[in-house]
Amino acid sequence: MLTTASRTPGRPGVFLAPPRTMTVLRPERLDIAGFVGVALRGPVDEPVRIQRWSDYERLFGGFDPAPGGPVRLLPYAVSAFFRQGGGAAYVVRVAPHREEGPTALTATARYRLQLPSGQEAILRAADEGEWANQLVVRLLYRVDQRVRGDLREDGLLVLPPGTSAPVGSLLRVSDPSRRMPPALRWAASVDDRLPRGSPLPVRLDAAPALAAGGATVVEIVTGTLLVEDLSRPGADDEVTTGLGLHPAHPRWIGTALTDRVPEGAERDAAARRHLVVPADSWVDLDLAPLPQLLPIDGALVEEVSDRTHLIDAGAFFDVGTTDFHSIDEDAGPSDPEPHVGVDRMARVREIGLLCVPDVAWAPYTPSPPPPALHPRSPLPCRCRSCDPDDPEPEYHAVAPVVGGLDARNPGDLRELVARQERVVELARACGRLVALLDVPDQLSVGQIAEWRSHFDTSYAAAYHPWLAVADDRDGPAIPVPPSAFAAGIIAQRELRLGLPWGPANELAVGAVRAEAVVTDASHDALHELGINVYRVERDGFRLTAARTLSTDPDYRQLSVRRLMTMLALTLQRQCADLAFEPNTAELRDRLTHMVTALLRGLARQGAFAGRTEADSFFVRCGDDVNPPSSQALGRFVAEIGVAPAVPLEYILVRIARDPDGSLTVVRDER
């Protein structure tokens, strides 16, 4: 028997191929979280996948607060997620829409390179923000190769084998005796069709003023862009080498630095990303250096201002959009307008959790910078100056403000509820996300109950109270949204134990203080409302529940909601290739075996309540659900039923005293 796996058939004919292996359904991951908020730096409205906190810090900055404004909660939320054991997350940075007109604030820093030709090359920071004011940009010229060439009578320059000089390369040609100054020439054409090991003939754009027929020293010159970020002491400089200085070069600097991501695609933090990119087209610029290859220092054209004080609801959502079904994970560049903020994150097909830590952000008036200390210093002598001393201005540190909207204000609370409703409606419309909400801080139990009345869906879960974490800069503890800790707990429970396990009964790692006191009475009331509460214990703050905000008893538990979502996604995504296959008994049997194997594996993890497989699930794909009338319409119906296991929440203990004086303890677990 000849199989296609052993060798490729060499003649036409009929061959026996190995049997087709059966597709195995694997549970879709739902532990990846999506975070949307305000960051110090980084791409705007572009989902970036990160694997660890250092990825976030490198791309989006650290914990620096907005100047004179609220605390950016996004970095604290992402840090809390990874501290709990989260494996991966997507981050979207929001920013206000670009302003137009003469009063518009410059959002992106620009740098000027004064070229030897007298022209100016303009670079701009890849992302907006005043962090780019601290960049130092230099364009260096270096010799990558130095070889001996042969300049022929016809002006053709022949280089030795192994020389890399593609079209558009800059060559510094000189006489070995150095009697004449070196000349810079461009490689106009290169004959690279010769066999390997052959000399490389290069046609120059102009013949150098050298004697033909003799040996010539040829140096291949490339550009190196050095970018130093002074805002991150100790960070490595960005060095981009091997840049071409002509548009015909394969690594033309005008395109090699361009940071392009296809519309609708997500970026990975491990992907290369440059700090600066060309501001305009550089095709008409002459980037040739002086023969001495002197470096060019970039100059900041104008300092930019931070625009975080202009962020409003329009930065988080597509204002005016009510058709949530248009926000689809398969949407492409044909959409009339690109989505922003939360709506853009909803198009990432990998995430199963959605957190918006800065959802309460509101526009504010930036505080003026603190006055600089007087430069005059006292003279080291006992005599007095003739001029009276100016009074030294006092410096008062501005305490960062937590959040933007104040939930104690009825108007702000209505705005906050409207934004959270938008997040929940988006998660419900997507059908694959669970929105993790934060109960507004500083509310009483009665006010929390009123807030809770606005939500009734299994695609959302709420958490209370806010938990504070220690500031790395020895400052006061910073309150962090409790949903960030919950997202990490949910992720690590799924990675460690599996999705069927309820994501609760875990400590919030890194929390040092709760912003509200939760008594037993208030805990009882909040639990009945479906609010997941952190309670203080001897070793920290423990998450005591994992409920959704649904009033439907079948979807009260978060683990049940996520289990059903995972099953729907697995069948939808991994069985899509079955479309247009013949609707035969073989196909029905194959799908039955595939789904049964998936459910059997989940049953071994404790996902179902039944004692046997027959009590836990069923799969029906036979003729009873696929009559000839249905098959004639091109339909294939599969009925799948499961009995999810509900997590244990209560343990009742009965203590009875026997007549002989002994005590009997009976536990009733529910």
Structural commentary:
It is a single chain. By secondary structure, this protein is α+β, with helices and mostly antiparallel strands. The protein folds into three domains: 33-96 and 307-365 and 400-555, Rossmann fold (3-Layer(aba) Sandwich), CATH 3.40.50; 110-300, no CATH class; 579-670, no CATH class. 20% of the residues lie in helices and 23% in strands. It contains 13 helices and 29 strands. The strands form six sheets. It has a ten-stranded mixed β-sheet with strand order 13-2-3-1-17-18-19-24-25-22, sandwiched between helices. Helix 6 links the parallel strand 17 (353-355) and strand 18 (434-438). Mean pLDDT is 84; it is low at 1-6, 331-336 and 392-402.
> How many individual helices?
13
Instruction: Using the CA coordinates, give the radius of gyration.
Output: 33 Å
Strand order of the largest sheet: 13-2-3-1-17-18-19-24-25-22
Which CATH class of the largest domain is shown? Alpha Beta
**Biggest beta sheet summary:** 10 strands, mixed
Number of strands: 29
CATH architecture name of the largest domain: 3-Layer(aba) Sandwich
Strand content: 15-25%
Class of secondary structure makeup: alpha+beta
> Which geometry do the CA atoms define?
globular
Quickly count the domains.
Answer: 3
Poorly predicted regions are 1-6, 331-336, 392-402
Query: What average pLDDT do the residues reach?
Result: 84
Distance between termini?
A: 61 Å
Helix content: 10-25%
The CATH topology assignment of the largest domain is Rossmann fold
Protein name: Phage tail sheath family protein
Pfam families: Phage_sheath_1 (PF04984), Phage_sheath_1C (PF17482)
Organism: Microbacterium alkaliflavum
Family: Belongs to the myoviridae tail sheath protein family.
